[in-house]
Amino acid sequence: AQSVTQLGSHVSVSEGALVLLRCNYSSSVPPYLFWYVQYPNQGLQLLLKYTSAATLVKGINGFEAEFKKSETSFHLTKPSAHMSDAAEYFCALTGGNFNKFYFGSGTKLNVKP
Amino acid sequence: EAQVTQNPRYLITVTGKKLTVTCSQNMNHEYMSWYRQDPGLGLRQIYYSMNVEVTDKGDVPEGYKVSRKEKRNFPLILESPSPNQTSLYFCASRGLAGIGGETQYFGPGTRLLVL
What is the pLDDT of residue B99? Predict the structure, then answer.
């Protein structure tokens, strides 16, 4: 069985502060993991992905995530938040034949001036 | 420009009135998929298609139909919509997995309200 859990439906940080969005997964096959961002009234845009190569993955807009198999986690971080980072973030999982995708419930990031 | 398009973007309908949401991609992708997004639930997969005439159920297929007669198009059909199908719907496509094609590209979404 495969599933994704995002801890914290809302996260609020100050501009310039560290962003940490948590994602834990469960998978019976080697996972491929993704982080997507959704701005209001828009579709989903890929931030980064883990595909069994390097465990530390760098993405767009200064975001990165680290795959930790022992902790079944794939947390998203950014050293310094910007106002433009305010959005909803989704962690997603696939594997096996890559036909089924599983998404977390999302985390809304609020950035305070 | 590589993209996934959906139409309509907004739709208000009444219970029981059949509707179709179209999805088209111009990236020659084999795989296409439909999702619904509901607050607090994230995205849930409705149906997916591995290629023309090949479709399979996702996690929430009840009340929906799909067809894949052409590679570029993957319409979502609600034959008798009900209020619990009020949601935001996304279409997505991806290329061949295993050679960097695991990433899905999403359309802009269709917001459906069923009265």
Answer: 67
pLDDT digits (tens, 9 = 90+) for A65-78: 999 999 999 999 99
Mean pLDDT of A37-46: 91
Assign residue B109 a region: left if phi > 0, alpha if psi is -120 to 50, beta otherwise?
left
Phi-psi region of B95 (alpha: psi -120 to 50; beta: other; left: phi over 0): beta
Closest approach of chain A CAs to the CA of B42, in angstroms?
4
Q: What span, in angstroms and rounded, lies between the C-alpha atoms of B76 and B46? A: 9
CA distance to A14, A76, B49, B76, per residue, from B92 (Å): 33, 23, 10, 12
**Closest by alpha carbon to A4, among A76, A72, A99?**
A72
Chain B nearest-CA distance from A46, in A, is 8
